[in-house]
Every structure is written in C-alpha cells, then in structure tokens.
Amino acid sequence: MKKTKNKEFSFIRLNEASLSHDPSFYSEFLQDVPQMIPILERIEHAFQQGIEPARLQAQEAYLLKDEKQVPLAVFKPFKQSGCQDVIRECLAYRLDHQNFANVPGTIMTQLQHPLLGGRRIGSCQQVIYPSQPFYGFQNSIVLKPEQIRRLAILDLRLLNADRHGYNVMIKDAEVFPIDHACILPERDVNLSFFWQTHPHASTKISAEEFQYLQNIDLSQDIEIMTEEFGLERSIVKKYVCAHLFLQEGLAQEYNLVEIAECLKRREQESVSRFSVLLSKIKVDCCWQELIGHARQQFKSFYLGGCPCV
Predict the structure, then answer these.
(1) Where does residue 58 fall: left (phi above 0), alpha (psi -120 to 50 degrees), or beta otherwise?
(2) What is the DSSP letter of 19?
(3) Within a domain: 3
(4) Is the peptide bond before 130 cis (omega within 30 degrees of 0)?
(5) Which single residue of 50, 88, 112, 252 could bond 302 by disulfide (Cβ 3.0 to 4.6 Å)?
(6) What is the pTM of this model?
(7) Could you tell me if 108 and 146 lie in one domain?
(8) Are residues 289 and 161 in the same domain?
C-alpha cells in the first residue's frame, strides 16, 4: 500500500473540543475500553507513516492496519442517513458485561483522512487477528459447548437480526462475535440464528451462565442505553423484555434453541410469539413496574407450555 507522509493523515483525539457531539461521551468510552488505547495509538502512528485505510467491499467500513500491515481495527463512520448502526456496534460491546461472549473492544472515535472524506466520527472495533469465519472453520464441533451457548445468549439478549457464520470469528478455538449494527431492530423482524442448528446450542445451560444473567443489573443497562446512547424508550423496552424473556425461559428449563423459536414467525403468523407478548407489556409506567409486568407475562407464557416448541 502506498505510503505518503502528509498532515492530512491524522487521528483526532477523543476529547477534542471541536467534536460535534459531547466530548465527554467519547472519553467515557475510552475509559470503558482500555484495550483500545494502544490500538488507537498504533493507528495514529500508521496514519503518520502514510498507511491508508482500506475500504471493505459492499459496505462503508474501513480496515485500519499498522505500519507492518497487521490489521488492527474496523472503522464504520456515521452514515448521512443516520447513526443508529454505529451506535449499536458500540452498544453491543457495552452490554456484553465482563466480556462474557467475547465481543471485541468497540468504541466511538473520530478519524481524519482523505479516503474517509475528511473528518468522520464512527465506531472502531478491534480486529481479532489472525482468525477465520465460523463458516470457514472445518470442525466446529470441537468448540466448547459454552462458546456456542454464550454466543446464543448474547444474540437472544440483543435480538440480533443479522447473525450468520461470517460475522462470528474463530481464533484458537474461541468464538468472537462481530458486526452488531442490526441488534434491537426498531421494527418487528423474523429472527433466526445460524447457531440454532449447532448441536451445542441445545445443551443445558450451566449454573455459571444462568447466574451471569441473574447478576445483570437492568437498571444500570437502562441508564447506559438512555443516558449514554440516547436510545428511545421503545428500543430500551425491547432490550429489557428480551433479557427477561430469555431469563424466564431458562428458569423454566427451556433451552436456547427452543427460546429462539419464539422469536420466529411461524407459518401463517404475521408476527412472532415474542412480539405478541411484547405488545401487551405496559409502556406508560416506570421501569420497575414494566419489569414486574413483563416477568409475569413471560412466566405465564412458559408455564402454559410454550407453543413455539
């Protein structure tokens, strides 16, 4: 790749006063993703050495490398039509508490380069290198069952509308899910996940995994989504209800594949069973009341025999 030193090739610091958004938003992200600090420093150095961002095919995303051409991160700038996909990329990392499902470090940052069209704000996600897509992994059965279950738990919590074997990376028999622009869709969609056919996905959840879900502080997540990300109440409601729906299903000893079936539209149905239940949950009430109402609805649903199975 061509190297030309030029002041136009630069990295914009996160707390720069001229940011169009509140600069504290970006500095908070940096504190939450400390592993990205050395990566951003290497990107800055590479830009200074004339290493250009490489546009990825079929999407407005750029692969960022160091001066030795080692992939470091993927940068996805805000689009003119909106920024929800970029926000969701960062949100997925923030909601993967304790890095339970191995979502790579992702932050909001700002880069400047002629190939980016000037100064752009967007999401920057660490590249897992070297790695290969799940669909390119010849013997996925050797993966530990918890690797598949944790991926499934993430997707069910976030209602991921775009999970396939090319946005799950494998390195050293570990799973790393990427590309989360389509989590928590605003409209009702027919959700299906490639992992539903994997034999590990239907194995019994461990006590540790169930406790992880129990320990998640929904009040804290609501604050993250509303205060840090500025998401609408309807989207936050979907997340809260998805979490509770998963939690209650597992408590009633349904497995992850069976729960995932409830997010699918069945034949001759216009919406999924989960969407029907979601429409019955109160909106014009406080969060604690909404959580209590949702728990009751979902418990009754599963105790009634879960017609999706």
Answers:
(1) left
(2) -
(3) no
(4) yes
(5) 252
(6) 0.89
(7) no
(8) yes
